[in-house]
Task: structure prediction
Amino acid sequence: MIMSRKVASCWVLAVLVLLATVVSCRRGPSRIHPPSINASAAGAKAIELFDENKDGKISGEELNKCPGLKAALSRVDTGGTGEVTADMITRRIEEWQKSKLGRMSFSCQVTRNGQPFSGAEVKFVPESFLGENVKVALGKSDQNGMAMINIPETTPPGIAPGMYRVEITKEGVTIPAKYNAETIFGQEIANDAEGIQEGVTFDMQF
Result:
């Protein structure tokens, strides 16, 4: 039987579509890449923002102004000096990038005076020196005070590697500024970050 040119063209097109579908299925979902961060520029920016005495390091009270970095201190300052340099921050960011981790599942607990605090809005705000590509992530605490933290409107859900300021608010409840606008809470997000395996709790005393 001789196939018409039109029928043959349709048959070829159908085969190509089928092959493309098979290849797409074999590849699976596209990889979630880590946010693009200029590691050396981020290290320099952190010093510019938080090194108030201009000694080339962030330490002591200066660290309190940067809770995301302070929370990562044990991984950044591997020598245990209590001082952070631009090079240390750069190296830590490069470690995130080498891990290829683009997003991870993360939950935390919010308590008030040691008791679960439900209905709290929990915002993870990336430290500004990381740049614009690390996005804010949000969660809301349940009756056990547990909150899943996710970047809004992203699939799959999760939070990107980074150093974050943690801000906690609740409608109708006046929570002290040291837990939100002037937060003392911080958290690093990485596979080996402090508290990731044990579980992270933010306890508010008021």
Remarks:
- The longest strand covers residues 162-169.
